[in-house]
Amino acid sequence: MPLLICHAPTGGVGTTFLAAHLALGLAARGHDVTAIDFCHADALKLFFGLPPAQEVPAMGGAPGAGVIVDGVELLSGWSVAQNPNFLRVLSRPGESPFADDRIVVADISSADLLIKNSLLPHAALHLCTLMPRPASLAALTKVQPGTPAIELDRTAFVLNQADDTLKLSRHSQIFLRELFGDNLIATIRRDEAVNEALASFKSIAKHAPQSVVLPELTALAIAVEARCGLSATVELPQ
Ligand SMILES: Nc1ncnc2c1ncn2[C@@H]1O[C@H](COP(=O)(O)OP(=O)(O)OP(=O)(O)O)[C@@H](O)[C@H]1O
Ligand SMILES: [Mg+2]
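Above are the sequence and the adenosine-5'-triphosphate SMILES. Below is the predicted complex in structure-token form.
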């Protein structure tokens, strides 16, 4: 089962938010999913509605030892990623430390290029979050330095926090659609309910079931499924 890595060249764009919802969306479609938080900030759990004090077990323990939320197993990868042995295993082609019967969604901090570059060769897909902001778009050359972003065959882009009332956001969507075509696999609107849900220690689905982002996040999971040759394993409402 594939490793999906979530990493963007700039921070604060919604990578962790998308990693959580990609994991939840795939689990809702019947897949066995583990979400691993490789960030020191330990924020992935918040998007599952868990409080900051919640302990998340480190990866590498007994199978199924993670915290289970809405069908997703949640693990922390931060401490393991600091271990040189882990990076040594990743440096061997074909050798993966991840269970091969589950989809693994990895949330990686923008600054952590070591873990991103170590995981990338094992990944079926790299999901790169962009925001309709100059600093985010200007960093497109940094997605994989030395390779133009449009030539990256295992990278798909998501525009997050789009807002059609803002000219720059509308223009960014047009620009990215022209640049990436089908490699722009989703656009997610900005909705303050995302932050309100976090502040209430609730998932967005529970806090704001009418949020505009929920169907867009489902569409993202479906697009990733298609990109990775996966198909839903549960009967879903039409
Ligand atoms: N679509 C959205 N609508 C509204 N707020 C959003 C949306 N996506 C993300 N946010 C908010 O933006 C902030 C940053 O999101 P997130 O932590 O996922 O970004 P990140 O790229 O992982 O940041 P970091 O670099 O700190 O890891 C959070 O407060 C989150 O709630
Ligand atoms: Mg993050």
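The chain has one domain: 3-227.
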